[in-house]
Amino acid sequence: MTDTLPYIRPKYIGQSIQRLEDSRLLTGRGRYTADRKVPRMAHLAFVRSDQAYARICNIDTEEAKVLTGVIGVFTASDFAHIPDITAPSKMLNYHATFCPVLARDFVRYVGEPVVAILAVNRYVAEDAAALIEVDYDPRDVAVTARAASDPTAPRLHDSLESNTVCSRQFLAGDCATAIDAAAHVVSGQFSMTRKTSVSIEPRAYVAEYESDKDMLTLHSATNIPGIVRDEIGRLLGLRGNKFRVVTADVGGSFGGKGSLYPEEVIVCDLAWRLERSVKYVSDRMEDIIASSQAFGEEVEATLAFDENGHFIALKADILGDIGAYSIYPWTAALEPVQVASFMPGPYRIPHYSATVRGVCTPKPPTGPYRGVGRPMAVLALERLVDKAASTLGLSPTDIRRRNLIKADEFPHRIGSGIIWNRSGFHECLTAAEDAVALTALQAERADRTEKWVGIGFASYAELTGIGSRIAVAPGMPMNTGAETATIRIDATGAISAVFAISSHGQSLETTLAQIVAEELGVLPEDVNVIQGDTSLTPHGTGTYASRSAVIGGGVAVNATRALLVKVKRVAATLFGVKPSDIQTGNGNIFVPNTNYSIDFPEIARVVYSDMSTLPQEARVTLEVQETYDPIFGTTTSATHVAIVEIDPETLYIKLRRLFVAEDCGRLINPLVVDGQVHGGVAQGIGAALLEDLKFDDAGQPITATLADYRVPTSAEVPDLEVVHIEAELPDNPGGFRGMGEGGTIGAPAAIANAVTDALSHLGIEVNALPITPSKLHALIALRQDEIDRSNE
Amino acid sequence: MNGMTHVTVTINNERHDVKVEPRMLAADFLRDELGLTGTHVGCEHGVCGACTILLNGASVRSCLLLAIQLDGAEIQTVEGLGGVREMHRIQAAFREHHALQCGFCTPGFLMTVHDILGRLPLRSDEEIRDALSGNICRCTGYDHIVKAVRSLVTERDKVTNQ
Question: In the predicted model, is pLDDT for residue B2 greater than 90?
């Protein structure tokens, strides 16, 4: 009997729906910032510092100024009206730096903008740049964080007492006593070199002056349009009625486009002053040497455990190389403090102590990069976990299983204060163990003649979709915990969903449409997701920190549900039934098992255009605006497994397999989730095996092209295997957890453990990434030296 | 240096007679002079492959060519593949397999795939990965791109085997 069947609305959440943004991106019709061309648009180029730390003695711009096609040549004094960029924080022991939009008196890293040239096209602007001469008086430099942290090191900022701009301590329990009393202790020094995001679209800004409204629109390749609007508005004295930021298509960010840059302030200021549109597109070398960098940390850590392999105490000392300035808005504390916050990982460790220092060096500022601090934290801890396992002769999975927080122990507060909620810690480990068929690998591992084969595990947990109770960066006076959405049905029955967040490859036009469509009962392609325009929403910050599925998805659920209440109320009046009798689905609004049914265009016509069917008071606007704040956040967890083989002749390290088992809650679009995991893992592979920003003793970057700074190509990335676990859904709307960064968090540690395992017959540990054939060669030579010396 | 040079070139089946500065890059010519902004510039030193176009059927980097070197050539850019409503098979395969995220490297990949599909056997995933290794994608980790190309090879080889 059909009339007794309950009505089940079609599901779109969880479906691998093809992306709605793809048709334009696949046909060359995307709208990236560099594609913009408007009348009388002027083009900007920069003369950048070629010195790491120097006093500016003289800048000769005479020849450049008179070149045909040059509109203006500008130095620091031309921007004296703009306050220096400075990132405030309520964190104790934090000292803000002051970064002028063009270097004033001093340059503090190679690549820092010194002179801005505006010309009729980029070719002429670069011709003029080549005619400018800057005289520098170089100062002594302390290039590494270690050297710069010495109290006698030359100070990068005369206004600061030392190069240490932030420091913090974490203490839970009695770590020192616990370590002293423990049966076993393992220690190590761990490090990662600096990385940079390398989004394939370089940074690009076009400030368009609209003379009819005396208004400025910044089209920016940024992933934080709301933050950029608020801060440039403050710096230039422009409110939202005079200044908006638009991000149409953004060609990747991974964090590199997630801070405020001097160039975008200059583009806006010049356009506003000259009443003329101004464009700046960085070239790749500029993008590598003058975008935010990340991951430059050293960690000294000790793990204490009992004879059964149960962890007792963890101690860590973290030194972060934060670069020349404390970046806006995240501050210099973002990355090193995050290392300490996540260091205890997904394990029960009763005693924890950590010290963190962030030190200024004459290099580009560090900022967010996929994973932020956690790749370093996980590398250090997971290496210690494997060292503990080999001390006791336990398998890597056994020791993890003994220490991972169990299902009945949630919520669990780790030593840094972070609270883990139920997530599939054990389930991910078990899935990973099952997937790699360990027994079959053992024979291959044992035979060291042809290849050195190794396997490595890494388990981690991360906090995603962080609400207003926790600052994304410590002490940052900014609400990054809330998002706003407006969902409306217009007079034609079309659905628009307006969000303050924006996408730089995350597929939000599709995934948010899936959520709205399922909740409202329409088809995903009927929903027009509008995002990345600060003039359309009162407040919002952007897409970063694995927040958009949780916070953006959460507000999509809440706002659509509120809109559905309105729709049902109108339909109930029309049909003369109770609102609770109304159902929606496939674009129809109906009472099941009756003839009462209308579609969305019809209900829109009745509400907006028909003046007789509904009483006046029932003709309400079918629009809802909601704000959602998860207050705390959700816990995402995973286990990564890497299998590597090393050629004993060439020491080439081949990553043969990389497997991920992860719990990101309810999947909105499995294809999109897989894509995010794959991309994150590829960046983790780069961090582990290839990517290395090098600076010489004078602070000169020596990896400023993509030929020198090597990111993974299809030849270095294996087929990636991903299994999704839904241990128990979190209680945030939709049950989503963030997962955009996880791939980068787990893979480096898993690869370091795998390479160490492959080298076990040589007694070599890989504690510094990236590990390359030449670094491996050096480690082997060093080890041989040790053996030779002990034999003497 | 600033003398203009005459260039005759056919781009996506449209013939253009234009004067350009001898130093103008082919990529800038396509994007800024002709408005064909689907060809993207990612590195300007020939490594990333985002600016890949077809020159007389062969994939080349438009950031390493001058506009005057296009004189007399047949050029195909991403705009010449398929439209928003009726995509080329390569574009459709990329969509089906979610082989793009931010989309910035995508036009270069599409043109490279167009070239290698016509030229190489691509019998294994290893061969596909090798053939794609001159294009950098920072979003996808390549897995879905390889799957998309694999599906296109399967489709191609069924046709040629008949």
Answer: no
| Residue A72 shares a structural domain with residue A96 | yes
CATH number where A413 lies: 3.30.365.10
Length of chain A in residues, anyone? 792
Q: Where are the beta strands (DSSP E) in chain B?
A: 5-11, 14-20, 52-55, 58-61, 74-76
Do both A573 and A641 map to the same domain?
no
Q: A539 and A459, same structural domain?
A: no
A611 and A699 share one domain = no
What is the distance between the alpha carbons of residues A690 and A715, in angstroms, rounded to a whole number?
Answer: 12
Contact A634, A464 (CB under 8 A): yes
Q: Which pair of structure tokens corresponds to residue A280?
A: 């700046």
**Owning domain of residue A45:** 34-139+207-250+257-285
Residue of A23, A24, A25, A26 to mutate for B, most B C-beta atoms under 10 A? A26
Compare A336 and A443 and report the one with higher pLDDT: A336
Domain boundary among A265, A285, A305: A285
Class of CATH domain B89-161: mainly alpha
Q: pLDDT tens across A564-611, in order? A: 999 999 999 999 999 999 999 999 999 999 999 999 999 999 999 998
Domain containing residue A91: CATH number: 3.90.1170.50
In a domain, A337, yes or no: yes
Enumerate the residues of chain A whose CB falls inside 8 A of the CB of residue B139: 252, 505, 675, 679
Tokens of A630: 């998860």
Check whether A3 has a pLDDT greater than 60. no
Helix (H, G, I), strand (E, B) or coil at A3: helix
Q: What's the whole-number mean pLDDT along residues A59-83? A: 98
pLDDT in tens, A514-523: 999 999 999 9
Q: Does the pLDDT at position A2 exceed 50?
A: no
Contact B106 A674 (CB under 8 A): no
In a domain, A341, yes or no: yes
Q: Name the closest residue on chain A to residue B101, using Cα atoms.
A: A505
- Do residues A612 and A719 both lie within one domain? no
Out of B31, B40, B42, the one facing A284 most closely (by C-beta) is: B42
The whole-angstrom distance between A785's CA and the closest CA on chain B is: 38
- Contact list in A for residue B144 (CB cut-off 8 A) is 671, 674-675, 678
B147 to chain A, any CB pair closer than 8 A? The answer is no
- Residue A94 has, within 13 A of its CA and on its CB side, a CA count of 23
How many domains is chain A built from? 3
Cβ contact A714–B133 (<8 Å): yes
Phi, psi for A25 (deg, rounded to 5): -70, -30
Phi and psi torsions of A657, nearest 5° = -140, 150
By the CB < 8 Å criterion, does B109 face chain A? no
Say whether the ipTM exceeds 0.85.
yes
For residues A165 and A184, what is the distance between their CA atoms, to the nearest angstrom? 35
Q: Are residues A310 and A265 in the same domain?
A: no
Upstream peptide bond of A375 is cis (omega within 30 degrees of 0): no
Q: What is the pLDDT of residues A362-394, one digit of tens each?
A: 999 999 999 999 999 999 999 999 999 999 999
How far apart CA A364 and CA A48 sit, in angstroms, is 12
Would the CB atoms of A32 and B104 count as touching at under 8 Å?
A: yes
Angstrom distance (rounded) from CA A10 to CA A476: 42
Residue A158 lies inside a defined structural domain of this protein: no
Q: Tell me, which fold does domain B5-80 have in CATH?
A: Ubiquitin-like (UB roll) (3.10.20)
What share of chain A in percent tops pLDDT 90? 92
Please report the pLDDT score of residue A10 as a whole number.
Answer: 85
- Residues paired with residue B66 on neighbouring β-strands, in sequence order: B25
Distance of alpha carbon A531 from alpha carbon A508, whole angstroms? 9
**Shortest CA distance to A191 belongs to which of A329, A377, A350, A45?**
A377
Of B90, B89, B98, give the one whose Cα is nearest residue B144: B98
The structural domains of chain B, with segments of one domain joined by +, span 5-80, 89-161
Residue at A145 is within a domain: no
